[in-house]
Amino acid sequence: MKNISIAIHGGAGTITRDSLTTEQDRAYRAALEEAVEAGYRVLEKGGTAVDAVEVAVLYLEDTPLFNAGKGSVFTKEGKHEMDASIMCGKTLGAGAAAGVRSIKNPVKLARAVMELSDHVMLSGYGAEEFAINHGLEFAPEKYFFDAFRYNQWAEVRDSNIFMLDHTENVDEKFGTVGAVALDKDGNLAAATSTGGMTNKRYNRIGDTPIIGSGNYANNKTCAVSCTGHGEYFMRAVVAYDVSCLIEYKGYSLQEACDEVVMQKLVAFGGEGGLIAVNTAGDIALPFNSEGMYRACMKNGEQPFVGIYKEWNKAN
């Protein structure tokens, strides 16, 4: 059988064993396993890498455990503004949506932008109009409501503070979701989706919908999906930087990921991690934070699911 592999993430940050109850740990692991298995089934049946990453991210968007889709955090106005992107490593086609509201699954909108428009990124009401024109599903405000997220926002809504989901004074940790995959034809793809930062203002947009920063795929090198403090990932052009180290410097996948995440980002204060896969089916899951929600599967093996720091490679 030809190599097939998939990896997913559900956010990175100050995630320790002490920060999650046994029930929370079990719930996160179950959600991650379900999502990675759903994406893997697509690959196993001969589906494309693009299909696989979309399906995996859909699963993560549909659970309130993660800060994307249904679980998106509240903005300063008490609303939800979501970003997503997807990229095909074979064609270098890419699509992204930024600052959208009421879209049930932003990753579907990103794929529609990639396949049904002449553009790479659409934002705000224009992206929503595009979604309407192409029959994408919207959801009412109550669909996105989560009591914990609301309480999290209530703590800071009267201040100018914005809150990352991995802030230490938050009892639960949430974040961007993403997936990368290799299909039987040797093609790569990556998808990323997020609800952004709690109490964010001014239609703030992070790295998630920016091709090369939060998401990238190229059959010559690798597919990458990032999670962390977006401002740093944008400034470091993290996803593309990993690809460049492979293409121009001859780094292995793991070496490139470690150089960017464990050296470059750390050097100027960037916290987070990423998932990556190459055309050999190798998987890397580096992070410089206390933990990262992550899972992977390859070539019929049992899925790996991790949360904490003790294992961050897929060798």
Automatic annotation (TrEMBL):
CDD domains: Asparaginase_2. This is Isoaspartyl peptidase/L-asparaginase family protein. It comes from Pontibacter locisalis. The lineage of its organism: Bacteria, Pseudomonadati, Bacteroidota, Cytophagia, Cytophagales.
